[in-house]
Amino acid sequence: MVDSHLSREIREQPAVLQTVLEREMEAVSSLAERLRQRAPRYVVLAARGSSDNAARYGQYLLGAFNGITAALATPSLYTLYRRPPSLKDALVIGVSQSGQSPDIVSVIAEGRSQGALTVAITNDTHSPLAQAAQTTLDLCAGPEYSLAATKTYTSSLMVLAMLSAAWAGDAERLVALQQTPQWAAAILEDLPHVLQIAERYRYMEACVVTGRGFNYATAFEVALKLKELTYIMAEPYSSADFQHGPVAIVEQGFPVLAVLPEGAAAQDMLTFLRSLQAREPELLVISPLAEALALAQTPLPLPVSIPEWLSPLLAVIPGQMFALGLTLARGYDPDHPRGLRKVTLTR
Amino acid sequence: MVDSHLSREIREQPAVLQTVLEREMEAVSSLAERLRQRAPRYVVLAARGSSDNAARYGQYLLGAFNGITAALATPSLYTLYRRPPSLKDALVIGVSQSGQSPDIVSVIAEGRSQGALTVAITNDTHSPLAQAAQTTLDLCAGPEYSLAATKTYTSSLMVLAMLSAAWAGDAERLVALQQTPQWAAAILEDLPHVLQIAERYRYMEACVVTGRGFNYATAFEVALKLKELTYIMAEPYSSADFQHGPVAIVEQGFPVLAVLPEGAAAQDMLTFLRSLQAREPELLVISPLAEALALAQTPLPLPVSIPEWLSPLLAVIPGQMFALGLTLARGYDPDHPRGLRKVTLTR
Fold first, then answer.
1. DSSP B260-294
2. Does the distance separating the beta carbons of A244 and B48 come in below 8 Å?
3. What's the whole-model pTM score?
4. Pick the CATH number of B184-329 from 3.40.50.620, 3.40.50.280, 3.90.180.10, 3.40.50.10490
5. Residues in chain A within 8 Å Cβ distance of B55
């Protein structure tokens, strides 16, 4: 069972990250050049599922490093309501591994018809999404057979990170990106250990996954993997939103998985986890920081020191491995979650 | 116990909606005039908790009727990372009943220092948020004693709806708004019945709340009430996002609460609920539509026909009543959820 598509695709991630870095940098650089000329006023990111979590990372990247507000699209305005907002000053980016989802294609097509700059980030460069957009960036992930996206997710983050760094002309960040494949490989060495650790959570019924800032996206993606693969209620929250009400659900033993890399959000997340201690939760912590790991019943140490802006590409990997481990512990099929199809045609 | 603050504040909503319509229309009109002159390129909405759900409604309203893309702010860019994006072409709106949350104040203060048009929507016109913004719109809700926001939530939606209609100079929508208080009163007549119905869910451990388009916000808000008050895992989803993975969690008897008013999203929601039937979920449906109600184990009929864009102000009320009923059925205190404070100071 360890040799599922899911397991193989999780392990392929270092190679995919390396491939996309090599093959797409030229296309990214030429898009970056056009972005500097056109200077869009804001960005609209259209996506669903795992790709929407990648878009969430894009929101923080583009805001922090490109000084531009990025909105997650509300596709029903384009489809159900047929009342699309003005997009002429926007950069419109569609993210979809399959490139098939009609609602995401609609946002891109509308942007293009209004004269906006449009970009497709997809694993299928012949897909309707790629055809609708002016520019396509290829995820270069090869076929993804598992229904739960893993390598196309990290590759989507990589493409967004390359785009942000190239647009800003930030040579230092472009160099840092080159180290990502080897960091991912180092994290994957822990796979057998994480599969074993997941046993403890065989009968977990629900959990919260929390992250802040750049890793808000990671919290969403790890929660989605847990829901898709293990059918438990896994709800993502930023530590800030969580304190505005939902914290009430935490009682003794309630599992909270925290994503806590080094960086500006770490202190805030640590304070939050300490404030939870009075409720005696069960903590799982993905972090390189000893003081964060010390709070956890289940520490999931990150063996490498990563710049915070890049950490979502890597901190998600222990979460993927944990979701795989829990799927196996619960006796489910990692490649065929009940009732899911690889391509979901929502409008 | 029925005479809790929460119960009283739920019942005060028609009066509060009436008050805000009467008292704030002048301020809204004068802001609308300035918006037509300034013509911002996009909107940034900053909020947390229930107010963030109101902001989500604002995203759809402003997109559909004012033709403008609205982004939900990412406050950590302004606070933890100190890398705020450019806001000079933006309208920046902060929504907070208390007006105290430092992260929301930071977004408004940054917008103002960059020369953006800034608006505070708050129940405390002397709060830090009101002081930071150029223009303040008052929720006129009077003191809200219950920790779970109800009347300040519907009042926030009303202020956003008034602003959208006035900005568009849409006389027909401004007239429709006047009927909201009486519609709310009609829905509240069902309170004793809904309290009784909640008994059936005494031992529910988790549920999904789903809505689409304008009522995506309602799904979030009803889920938040359930989490705050009854401590169950209630997860909000648009029907579209839900089909991209999380649908895997639905098995026989799994509770799904659907918000399904008349309008452009209704057919899509109906198709979605029918597609769920093979999994034999337990359906609770808030709707005026007989064919939607017929699918439900627990129909929560809306007794009035409401334009879809206004339905979030009203469709949330049966959800609030259901959350109150479940709180009482489970023997919890509706006014003092464990571990919550009325004002949450996140940064």
1. --SSTTHHHHHHHHHHHGGG--EEEEEES-HHHHT
2. yes
3. 0.95
4. 3.40.50.10490
5. none
